[in-house]
Amino acid sequence: MSNAIIELKNISKSFGEEDILENFSVEIARHEFVTILGPSGCGKTTMLRLIGGFETPDNGQIFFDGEDITNLPPYKRRLNTVFQKYALFPHMNVFDNVAFGLTIKKIDKNIIKEKVSEVLKLVNLSGFEKRNIDSLSGGQQQRIAIARALVNEPEVLLLDEPLGALDLKLRQEMQLELKKIQKKLGITFIYVTHDQEEALTMSDEIIVMNNGKIQQKGSPIDIYNEPENAFVASFIGESNIIDGIMQKDFLVEFAGTTFECLDKGFDDYEFVDVVIRPEDIKFDKEKGKIEGVVNSVVFKGVHYEMRISAADFDWIVHSTTMEPVGSRVYLDFYPNDIHIMKKVK
User: Could you tell me if 199 and 270 lie in one domain?
Assistant: First the structure.
């Protein structure tokens, strides 16, 4: 039996002459924090709006727990949405904002009071019931928007870049709070963002999108350590991506040198993309096969970021050891630090 709570099958969606999604299919697992990650215009928000019922696909079907909901209006779907702009009602206090959906359903007032109290406790805003919305900080307003969605007890919560308006420190705090809330409730969160750090911090699974297509789907560790193509490698964190030739299984040539690697299944002498993360490069005069010169050094707090010219390539190196500008260095890395990917045609 499938563990998917949401399924999009062969979805196509265009606006005017622009195709946003074409023959797009994906499954979202229940009880997980799933992040849809990609640059602006890649189709991630369109995907979320299709799931929420705010857009209708031109072709294809959308299933919720095995039921076809393609043409079901948003208010009949067992999910709620938190938008980037929180859309709170300024003329209502916190209690009335959170209770709005339950009030519309004409739920008993005592039950409403109990549910609102529970959800405000969940988002650490107990005692704020009578506060005006305008008196709250951005982070508090964001929590109220989440509480208003959660009080309806959805099986799936959709979040469309809800932390975008917050400052860095508060955004980082809320990333941890959202993950804690999701784990406590056990419901499916589908979160849209273009922020790689958010995706890596919060997600059980990440769906990386570009140009309306899924580039990779997997855990944060897999996405970061084993990118499937150059786009994923460059979009998730920083990477050195250099042209290479796969001489044979477990042996790749790049930067004028041959290196052992852990990859196989390529054609002999196939042109490939070689990815090496900046933090995986070491300085070693004895073992380093690539000789270069340090062009710049920037202190980043926990490490130094150095730009190094070597083998006709501008390398990025992150290290706690600083080599001064102009110094000659020798770059070294282990076979498992070398990631080989097929060239994208």
Answer: no
Tokens of 251: 């042996």
| pLDDT (tens digit per residue) in 232-285 | 998 998 899 999 999 999 999 999 999 999 999 999 999 999 999 999 999 999
> Which residues share a beta bridge with 217?
207
Work out the burial of residue 216: count CB atoms within 10 Å of its CB; fewer than 13 is exposed, 13-18 middle, 19 or more buried. Answer: buried
For the four alpha carbons of 57, 60, 65 and 67, in that order, the dihedral sign comes to: positive
pTM: 0.86
Residues 172 and 202 both lie in one domain: yes
- Per the structure, the count of domains in the chain is 2
Rounded to whole angstroms, how far apart are CA atoms 62 and 49? 12
Helix (H, G, I), strand (E, B) or coil at 57: coil
CATH of residue 190: 3.40.50.300
Q: Which domain holds residue 226?
A: 4-230
The answer to whether residues 180 and 276 belong to one domain is: no
- Angle of helix 94-104 relative to helix 109-122, nearest 10 degrees? 130
Q: Are residues 168 and 282 in the same domain?
A: no
State how far the Cα of 107 lies from the Cα of 153, in Å rounded to an integer. Answer: 13
Cβ neighbours of residue 24 closer than 8 Å, sequence gap 6 or more: 8, 10, 11, 12, 13, 43, 47, 60, 212, 213, 214
What are the pLDDT digits (tens) for 64-110? 999 999 999 998 999 988 887 777 888 999 999 999 988 988 889 99
Residues 162 and 293 in one domain: no
d(CA 225, CA 279): 12
